[in-house]
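request received
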Amino acid sequence: MEFAFSPEQEALRDMLRTFVAKEVRPKAHTWDTTGEFPGETVARLGGLGILGAMVPEEYGGSGMDTVSYALAVEEIGKGDGSLGLTVASHNSLCVSHILSFGSEEIKRRYLPDLASGRKLGAWGLTEPGSGSDSLSMRTRAERKGDRWVINGSKMFITQGSVAGVYVILAVTDKEKGKDGITAFVAPSGAKGLSVGRKLHKLGMCSSDTAELVFEDLEVGPEAVVGRVNSGFRDTMKNLAGGRISIAALSMGIGLGAMQEALAYARERTQFGRPIADFQAIQWMFAEMATELEAAELMTFRAAALKDSGRPYVQEAAMAKLFASEAAMRGTIKAVQIFGGYGYTQEYPAERYMRDAKLCEIGEGTSEVQRIIIARNLIRGR
Amino acid sequence: MKILVAIKPVPNPDEKVKIKGDGSGIVLDNIKMVVNPFCEIAVEEALRIKEKQGGEVVVMMVGPKVGEQQVRTALAMGADRAVLVEAGTDLDSLAVAKVLAKVVESEKPDMVLMGKQAVDDDNNQVGQILAAVLGWPQATFASKVEFLADNRKANVTREVDGGLETIEVTLPAVVTTDLRLNEPRYASLPGIMKAKKKEVKVLELSSLGVDTAPRVKVLGYAPPKQRAGGGRVASVQELVEKLKNEAKVL
Ligand SMILES: Cc1cc2nc3c(=O)[nH]c(=O)nc-3n(C[C@H](O)[C@H](O)[C@H](O)COP(=O)(O)OP(=O)(O)OC[C@H]3O[C@@H](n4cnc5c(N)ncnc54)[C@H](O)[C@@H]3O)c2cc1C
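response:
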């Protein structure tokens, strides 16, 4: 058993560390407080190949493996959770759904723009009335000759108001449940596709989250991603991969907060000593570092399993569950270490804490991860 | 235009280095090596010239084989191929310049671009010595490079004390880069993947027949003096008094 990154993975990590230190970390506070989507920085990440990390070269992507991609999300998350979420959702939800299940025609049509970042991707499963119970969705697509007419709405859609490409899940055969849902792709500006409210959030403030509304959105048969009625099963597979990226993002947020807290604890003196000298503070660091190390091992193992074509659903769910909760616990400790300053926006600890919370909710809540893990165990997958 | 760029791996300037117990050098275990920042600027300039007028960018490095990682960084930025002369870390500036001259003689570039100095030893010598060994013109501390007369000449703006100086050099020439020449690009993911497949020719130092016997002997390394902690003054009067009598700057 070997635990080592390849020279290319190290090169990617080094490059991103420099990029994040220079271009992301110094701006994260402003992005967070204004809630402005950092389009220019996202475009630069596109130029570096990060928005097509796992897309093969023939479709204009970087052709990297899941481990490299997880590394990238982690490094970006260390600097800014929101930007990490943008990268993770674009790659793991929208791009990955098209790449894994789309026809050759759809891949040729959409992937080059998505992989280069010329267009951003959004992916809509959740609805106002249907979240964890995604099968209860009400958005429906009805046949009109060989075309489809979509009506309904989607909620909490990342890149909702800034995307150029939307993948939308809709009921196509109500009687068939899991085998009655289909994924469709539509470009921004399509007639009948509109962006509803933009949502103001606790954290991940500069990641774009919006509601989508479909009013007689008409698409042709070529807009079906995968097969008619295979959308739900494809989604479950897609989400398993997405969990690896949320685990990586959690790790990044946790480690980013820890680095800030370490620097602060070495400098801040009380009772004539740096607070890092107090055992109470040291123990917090020891726990944080150990949990994040465990999260890292789980995340990269899930990624490596996926890369080698072995089953990884269980490991990805466990990594997501553990990493997001470790990040939450770790960022709460970071705020504590900063004391009163930690509670203010003068220091970044509270931003990391607010950002971490999303990782316990998005792409399946912690409760849902526990359900998946237990079900796999009990059914003996 | 064919450009040869010399690069040197150096300890990451953002990391704290420690001196060995016996003062014979610095502890390099666990220190992250990076491409010397001035060399990165040289790679960037070469790539921009190539993007404008075509040609080839070849990277050369003299030093231990582990430096291949930094050579790959330059390849990931976009250089075409590389030549690595395997040697120890004990070569002095003259020896390095003589080895580089051998590579230049076999590659026959139109220009050699390199950093004005490496941020580890701050010698600021190799470019100048290389030009002398080759018998080529040199333009050091470049902040702007422009080509004239069908690439037979170049105008190089140099950062000199108190201002800028522009000189004309006949090519081939050695040009060393200053900080403001450009802002180097980041290696892209596809660039990193492509770099893996690019050619890195490894040469044995002994195969070049160069006398690399050191002319300079390092006697020892010592850390800079620890800064004494600051103190608080109670009043402006006290501050002025201290500036006059202790710091003696007034
Ligand atoms: C910032 C952000 C970005 C998002 N981006 C996207 C996106 O791009 N695309 C997309 O489709 N969705 C997106 N989502 C939606 C996200 O995936 C859902 O919010 C999440 O799956 C939970 O659904 P819900 O909000 O409806 O909560 P609910 O499902 O209503 O859950 C409420 C609570 O009940 C618990 N619960 C529910 N069912 C059970 C059960 N059976 N047993 C025990 N507990 C249960 C949940 O764990 C939770 O604590 C995003 C959400 C946020 C906040």
